[in-house]
Amino acid sequence: MSESSTAAFPEPVAPALLFDLDGTLIDSVYQHVIAWRNALAKADIELSVWRIHRRIGMSGGLFVNALMRETGLRLSAEQVAEAVEDHAVEYLRQHSSVVPLPGATELLRTLSARGISWAIATSGQRRTAGHALELLGLPEDTPMVTRDQVRFAKPDPDLFLAAAAHLGVDPRHTVVIGDSVWDMLAARRAGALGVGVLSGGYGRDELERAGAYRVYADPAELLARLDELGVRGAEEGG
């Protein structure tokens, strides 16, 4: 073989990106924290906001179950369902204060312009998550999987598996972008590469211990360093 010959090997599959929503693309984590605090207060449950924040990213049912375990409280299935509903109502009341995170809109537009597949996978219900599409300037048919569409939410891998299936890609060929340890755990269970962002309030060490390959400040820094994830457009060489 001459030195100028090109090695023969199977063409690598271009990675697809799967995004969490709250704290990853939109600045909404603390609105969810306050919404949960108010919802739980209606059930005469007073919790410090730091305890609530540690569980943001889980589905509502798992969230309440985890808090019950940690605090020793007991709620009936009806009370849990009522708390989940109250949270949705409280969050929607604050929705006008939610904005895209720095670089989020530009990141998604850049991926689309380069022909890179991506989708959103969120533990939120469609009724609360759907408003984010307008905030991000995205059409209604944007690939997005919500809690309503899967059996289990994070830290189970269902949301990311469903998002990968929606894009028609093997989960092993995806990169999950998320702000919480629950995102990173779900990514690992899905067989995906996890990448963390600090914009949801978790620390770099926590995200890395949960399996994050890289951690960036926010979507803007991720956009500037897309090459570090092996993501390139069809027109890029090198």
Notes on the structure:
- With 238 residues, the chain is α/β, with parallel strands linked by helices.
- Helices cover 42% and strands 11% of the residues.
- The chain has eleven helices and six strands.
- A six-stranded parallel beta sheet has the order 3-2-1-4-5-6, sandwiched between helices.
- The chain is elongated, with a radius of gyration of 19 Å.
Descriptive keywords:
238 residues; alpha/beta; 6-stranded parallel beta sheet; 11 helices; elongated
Strand content is 5-15%
Largest sheet: 6 strands, parallel
Radius of gyration: 19 Å
- Net shape: elongated
Ranges where pLDDT stays below 50 over 5 or more residues in a row are none
Chain-wise SSE layout:
Layout: E1 16-19, H1 29-42, H2 49-53, H3 60-71, H4 77-93, H5 104-113, E2 118-121, H6 126-129, H7 131-135, E3 144-145, H8 158-167, E4 174-178, H9 181-190, E5 193-197, H10 204-209, E6 212-216, H11 219-224
Parallel strand pairs: 1-2, 1-4, 2-3, 4-5, 5-6
Helix pairs in contact: 1-4, 3-4
Provide a short characterization of the protein structure.
This protein is α/β, with parallel strands linked by helices. It has helices spanning about 30-40, 50-55, 60-70, 75-95, 105-115, 125-130, 130-135, 160-165, 180-190, 205-210, 220-225; strands at about 15-20, 120, 145, 175-180, 195, 210-215. It has eleven helices and six strands.
